Batch of 2 targets.
Target 1
Amino acid sequence: MSVPIFDPTGLEPRSATDELRAESPLARTPDGTWVVLRHAEAVRVAEDAENFSSAVSRFLQVPNGRDGAEHAAMRTATDPFFGPTEMARLAPRLRRVAAVLVDELLDGVGPEGTEVDAVAALGAVFAVRAQTSWLGWPAALETELLDWMVANHEASRSGDLARTAAVAERFDAIIRSVLAPRRSAGAEAPEDPTTALLRLEVELPDPAVPGSARRPLREEEIVSILRNWTGGDLGSIALCAGVLLMGLSRAPELVERVRDGSEAEAGAIVDELPRIDDPFVANRRVATCPVTLAGRRIAAGERVMLHWTSINRDELVVPAPDAVDPEANATANLVYGTGPHVCPGRPLATLELVTLLRELLAVAEVRPSDTPGEREVAAVGGWAHAPVVLVPRRR
Ligand code: HEM
């Protein structure tokens, strides 16, 4: 069968891939990138970092763009930032952040309710406040970060590398503005994850110290890690909030389970709705040697895209991709990826999203709005604008 040709940029990612996936596990873009559309092939690629390298960008990306021992050392050093103790310590702060935001949105709202955009007014604002609170950054950065999210989104949509580089530069300046005072404060710097990163050592030899086995992180590595922890993921959290609220506004039975069920049940629903409509569309790899995938020969150096939105809707593992069934679909769920590059931030993302939903649903009903939502187009997915009506609950 010939490989279908399509350009994933600028298309609604589900409709762009649902039909292609039925024909073949792989598609090919006009520029020759192989697009992995099905679950089994995605697992094969994501778990085989030797044949499918993540070193796809000309910019330093830690840990995303690293491979092998260096990647493993970076993950070993940084994964504990998302450990259970850290998350338990953060949980009450996130509850406060969510409660304050929900209060602001419902302030003075009568029984007729108020329309909000679940992406911009709820998800993005919450994501920025939650991340700055977690990292110990000044609350005054909120507006700057929200402006940056918009600029970043527009730059990725434009596909213009110079614009993307300028936006990345702008973000690096924000990061350096929070690092500099900590460096000058030395031992007096506040105890938070940002300061902990400055003090972190990785199990990698220091070229400047012969025979060494460990070294501190370099400035550019710290900046890159913080860029990944904030820059990329603020947008994912905001878009997930849109997908979740649009879904919940149309499914009151799920609202009850999120509001009154266990944390685990709420977490399972928070995983399942983005499985159906995954806004974190894709990650890239490059083949390190000739390799056969789904009967196709991929040459060394050819680009491969893991299309998570399609992969998560693969009928071979999820027979009814649009049906909400968190328990049955949990093992097929690859919203956070798999293999050595699997998302380290998943515990934080889940905690943030569950906290936001539970704080909101405790005090408000979420209803569909008459204003139609606007879909996103690739490189991201989900909703660009997700209008829902919040109605204060009588208590
Ligand atoms: C709903 C929100 C999120 C989604 C859907 C998501 C999804 C993903 C996926 C699919 C990957 C795998 C990438 C690959 O295989 O190349 C990934 C990697 C990553 N995620 Fe997330 N993520 C989210 C939130 C977060 C958060 C909150 C953080 C940190 C604060 C984070 C940090 C990272 C990092 C650093 C990587 C790269 C890991 C590596 O290459 O070893 N993510 N994420």
Target 2
Amino acid sequence: EGLLPTLGASQQDHDDFERFTDIIDTYKSRKAFTIPMELSSRDDDLLRLDLISMSGFLKDRGLDSPALHWYVNYACRDDYGCNYNDVSAWAGIHYFASRDVEEGTVLTWPEGNGWIVKRLREKLATRITTGSLVFHVSHDYVDVYDVRERLSTRIRAEHVIFACPTYLAKHLMEKPPSVEEFEYAPWLVANLSLDSFPQQRAGVPIAWDNVIYDSGSLGYVVATHQRLNTYQPQTVFTYYYPLTGPSPAKERTRLLNTSWQVWVDFILADLAKPHPEIRGLARNIDIMRWGHAMIRPRPGFIWSEARRKAAEPLGNIYFAHSDLSGFSIFEEAQYRGVLAAERILKIRG
Ligand SMILES: Cc1cc2nc3c(=O)[nH]c(=O)nc-3n(C[C@H](O)[C@H](O)[C@H](O)COP(=O)(O)OP(=O)(O)OC[C@H]3O[C@@H](n4cnc5c(N)ncnc54)[C@H](O)[C@@H]3O)c2cc1C
């Protein structure tokens, strides 16, 4: 229960966790770290945090507990897809200090953000065109390829909202904003269809989100956890593995070049630590490779001129991807989209 590793924790672990919590509470009381991130405090002492790494921040404050380091690194890998050595301390602290929720009060749906997508789609069905690839964006028009009809169409536009990942601008625009500073973390996500649940061990029931201590993965989510059936033999585990090596380009190549079978063996070996019988239960394993899954909030990026400039409109083209916030969360995506729409509505009167 809970993410803090308390089993076998030493006195130093307890002391360091307490000191870390106090530090975070001080930032919370200043209301310095907000969602959306643009509304955060610009105090100098806080902006300077962007120049050091999250691991450096802990070391600078004499917080050495291995359990605390594991916990903070897990948080960075989970939300940013990066090792805490490569995460700006500003971003790392933002993860802990921007939310004021009690653990256990998280709201989620069985299909995750897919639920929000469905509800939005219900309202906007007549205005959405799917199966369409944008291949050119200019100040006067957007060229779109309909993959079903195999037909290209030119859409004349007075204003364009560019909500694709921002790095794509260099492939789609003649004069794109500079995106050289934008780095993205690759992720692997696997769905394991299981004939039955693994055994419960050590008296602990399988939770919705299950973490394996000291694993390179983030563990797994039980996709059927919120079903109300009292008897449910089969299930699906969704397994998350961010590739967090220091070079995202090399990690992308590794993700692409590693075969399905090698990934399957890797995943099953990892899951066999808590569930030795997993190999016999898995009927099917689907693997999704996300080359540019999340923007990397590496030291210096969040409050860089490069990020700030890329978030500005280029004439009548407004950028709106969550990566403009420096880290990938739904709330930032929503903020960027609304901001772009409001800017255009203001001009149109
Ligand atoms: C494995 C994983 C787990 C995550 N879990 C969470 C989570 O639990 N909570 C959370 O808040 N965030 C999570 N995120 C982050 C999540 O990606 C963002 O919160 C959210 O999707 C960002 O929305 P967005 O609209 O900015 O961008 P995106 O969701 O990336 O949307 C961009 C869209 O542009 C489209 N596109 C790209 N190129 C073209 C083109 N040429 N033509 C037409 N369309 C194009 C894409 O198909 C895509 O639909 C997760 C990310 C990953 C990878």
